[in-house]
Amino acid sequence: MDLGRRRSSTSIGHEKCSFHHDLELEHSPLPREELIPELAASYRSVIHNLGEDVTRQGLLKTPERAAKAMLFFTKGYDQTIQEVLNDAIFDEDHDDMVIVKDIEMFSICEHHLVPFWGKVSVGYLPNKRVLGLSKVARIVEVFSRRLQVQERLTKQIANAIVEAIKPAGVGVVVEGTHMCMVMRGIQKVNSKTTTSTMLGEFRNDQRTREEFLSLLK
Ligand SMILES: Nc1nc2c(ncn2[C@@H]2O[C@H](COP(=O)(O)OP(=O)(O)OP(=O)(O)O)[C@@H](O)[C@H]2O)c(=O)[nH]1
Ligand SMILES: [Zn+2]
Question: Which residues form a coiled coil (predicted)?
């Protein structure tokens, strides 16, 4: 079975990250809190360039607050899958589908630096090994807390599960609302974007895929 072949409901012609890169994103050379002063200076400049008075009382601490907030929104850069899994991979003779659904997700659109959020559902067919259940949500956190596009986020989650437990198949469905489409631009308040990645039996076997999708309803 070729888990490397991917089926995705949206076509992506410009995938830049190799799987290895997905799991081993280079860390910033400094501990993240040491980035606060420079990030705060950048935010001070942004506020100033918006025509605001950076010395007025309400804005005095804003650059530093914004820097800390952005570091939180992107804390996934500081984590690796190996760390968050913490060896919570268990030998288990269970070969029926495992689904963790409606995992909340908050991310930052890499095109506009505004949030997108929604929910992630993950299913897999174990192959002698299962993941600690919370670890599925932790994998979602690692990849969503970065500058992202929804399609890449979806693939990275699926690939990480393949790498971790080599299951017979994985399906990931992400439903997202993008503030760049709500609060600006086309301003479509109710639009939602659904992306999916199906690997292994979820890709090759229609009944497996249908079972997964029907259990998500
Ligand atoms: N495929 C994909 N596109 C995204 C995502 N987030 C934002 N975008 C899109 O990125 C595109 C950027 O298009 P540009 O024309 O360069 O930027 P823009 O002028 O701000 O585009 P508009 O949003 O149409 O006003 C827009 O179509 C966004 O909707 C995402 O997660 N996936
Ligand atoms: Zn955007």
Answer: none
